[in-house]
UniProtKB/TrEMBL annotation:
Subcellular location: Cell membrane
Domain Major facilitator superfamily (MFS) profile: 21-394
Claim: Transmembrane is one of the keywords in the record: yes
Origin species: Agromyces allii
Organism domain of life: Bacteria
Keyword Transmembrane: yes
UniProt membrane topology term: Multi-pass membrane protein
Protein name: MFS transporter
Ranges annotated as spanning the membrane: 21-43, 55-75, 87-110, 116-133, 145-163, 175-202, 223-250, 256-275, 282-301, 307-330, 342-364, 370-389
Any Pfam family the entry gives: MFS_1
Length: 398
């Protein structure tokens, strides 16, 4: 399958046949997640240099995520007739520009503006990449393909955020964003060479009663997705603050995030081997482990060893979440793949932005020790939606 092939003659294949395109999407996803989450690792340093509190600096994650939540569906609809590959390349160009602005910004307001540019890019990127990943392969391989693409997101946590955090700690957070801008520009070229063009999706031709049923299932997947991400980022946005409060030196945050992120690949692997066989049971198991890990984190805090052990359990489980919900949403067939990707992207970022804001409010109002319990309750609520909505999360892949 040639990367330069005409979208009109392109056909989906096996995971092996689509390897070039999947690799391109995986690398792009890696940098997209690194761009989104880099402030998490350098939050204390950014706040100190820009003269704002840690909870205010956390709004850099909130602003970014809410841009995605608000714009993902409208931008996807407005651009639905444009070539998919060209649009994906445009998002990578916007990531590059946004990171340059942040690296050079003299004030917190300009940093926020640079993050907003990245937020617009993110609103389209994940909507496109989820649909793209599902189109590169036959339906029988959707779960595996999306798990591989999502491995880029896991790698963003495993390598991107920890290494950029370590770089930011050593030579300054501005340098970290500058290096990320260069990497985004290089990835734009790589994607242009490796990713095949795909046709624009045709409108859903399902009859009206069937379409309503499918949309109802898609809505349940979207609600569960939002709740789980809300719980996750209520805690993860402030993971550097938690680690420092548990006694970790600032220089150790990057390496610890590297180890914890590496454990997330275990969850990504688990999703890859189960999503095309028993998707419902695997997702319920993953969410259950997340809840246990977050509750254990709250009970262990501020004990250093307990915090690390609980974070390892929680982080490993979260590695399976993104591909699990993406695959469940695609399989509902409740809309075109692009619109489904937009909905998954929007609801995840409602959770990310809301979690950053909620975590900041809990931190300011009740103290850091309550943040993990709040996150656990929200993930549990998402798990209950999965448990009750059997038709939206069937045991046999649809």
């Amino acid at each position: 399958m040639s990367a330069s092939g005409d979208a009109k003659t392109w056909r989906p294949g096996t995971v092996r046949e689509a390897a070039g395109g999947i690799v391109a999407l995986t690398i792009a996803t890696f940098l997209a997640v690194t761009t989104e989450m880099l402030p998490v690792g350098v939050l204390p340093a950014m706040g100190a240099e820009l003269g704002v509190t840690e909870s205010i600096a956390g709004l850099l994650v909130t602003v970014y995520a809410f841009m995605v939540a608000v714009l993902a569906v409208p931008l996807t609809l407005w651009t639905r007739r444009l070539p998919r590959k060209g649009l994906l390349l445009a998002t990578l160009a916007a990531y590059t520009a946004g990171n340059v602005v942040v690296a050079l910004a003299p004030t917190f307001a300009v940093v926020a503006a640079g993050r907003a540019i990245g937020g617009v890019a993110h609103a389209l990127f994940f909507s496109l990449s989820i649909a793209y990943g599902s189109r590169l392969v036959h339906a029988d391989f959707t779960g595996r393909a999306l798990a591989l693409v999502t491995a880029g997101a896991s790698a963003g946590f495993v390598l991107g955020v920890p290494l950029s955090t370590s770089l930011g700690t050593a030579v300054g957070w501005r340098v970290a964003f500058g290096v990320l801008a260069v990497a985004c520009a290089g990835t734009l070229v790589l994607v242009a060479l490796l990713l095949p063009a795909v046709p624009v999706a045709a409108p859903d031709g399902a009859d009206h009663p069937e379409r309503r049923v499918r949309r109802g299932r898609l809505a349940m997947v979207s609600v569960a997705n939002a709740l789980v991400y809300l719980g996750q980022y209520t805690v993860y946005t402030y993971i550097a603050v938690i680690l420092l409060a548990a006694g970790l030196a600032a220089s150790g945050v990057g390496p610890i995030l590297l180890v914890l992120g590496g454990l997330g690949l275990v969850g990504t692997w688990f999703a890859g081997v189960t999503l095309d066989r028993r998707p419902r049971a695997s997702l319920l198991l993953v969410l259950g482990v997340m809840v246990v890990g977050l509750v254990a984190l709250g009970l262990a805090f501020p004990g250093f060893t307990g915090v690390l052990a609980a974070s390892a359990l929680w982080g490993a489980a979260f590695g399976a979440v993104a591909s699990s919900f993406q695959t469940a949403a695609i399989r509902t067939r409740g809309a075109t793949p692009d619109l489904i990707g937009a909905l998954v992207n929007a609801t995840a970022n409602i959770g990310i932005g809301g979690g950053a804001a909620l975590g900041g409010a809990v931190l300011a109002g009740f103290g850091l020790g309550w943040v993990p319990f709040c996150g656990a309750a929200l993930v549990l609520a998402g798990a209950l939606v999965v448990l009750l909505a059997r038709r939206a999360f069937p045991e046999i892949p649809g």
